[in-house]
Design goal:
Blueprint: E1 6-13, E2 28-34, E3 40-45, H1 51-66, E4 72-75, H2 84-92, E5 96-99, H3 109-128
Parallel strand pairs: 1-4, 4-5
Antiparallel strand pairs: 1-2, 2-3
């Protein structure tokens, strides 16, 4: 696996927008993408407030696996990435923050393309299993 130097984080809404019989109702998913290798990790979130917990888990996982430290993270200006706790965590761990300009998805093109790929995969799997389009 390549060295993790920069991680691109991007949240997406409406993974499952209808109430289902699932034990947990996930409304969001968060992608973390290695900017060098383009390897992606996807985490499902019930609430955006859980973004920091998932990032902390991700950081431990990746750093233990690669023996490299995360040096930089690029995010949009979503509230889940701009909380005081998230900023403090990044400062304590020496992670540089790069924030994209609001309403300019073209600046985070890697994450936008990965989002389209993930959503196409989800739609394909739902279609294959004949699940109603409301999901």
């Amino acid at each position: 696996m390549a060295c993790i130097k920069k991680v691109i984080a991007h949240p997406c809404r409406h993974m499952w927008s209808n109430h289902t019989n699932l034990k947990q109702h996930f409304q969001y998913f968060k992608k973390l993408i290695d900017d060098y290798s383009r390897k992606a990790w996807v985490y499902f979130l019930a609430e955006k407030s859980k973004a920091l917990q998932h990032f902390q888990y991700f950081k431990k996982l990746v750093e233990k696996e690669t023996r490299q430290y995360i040096k930089c993270i690029r995010t949009d200006r979503g509230g889940e990435f701009n909380s005081l706790e998230f900023n403090e965590f990044c400062k304590q761990n020496g992670i540089k923050r790069q924030l994209t300009i609001a309403y300019t998805p073209q600046l985070n093109g890697v994450a936008e393309r990965k989002n389209r790929t993930v959503m196409n995969l989800v739609r394909s799997m739902l279609s294959e299993k004949n699940i109603p389009k409301t999901f």
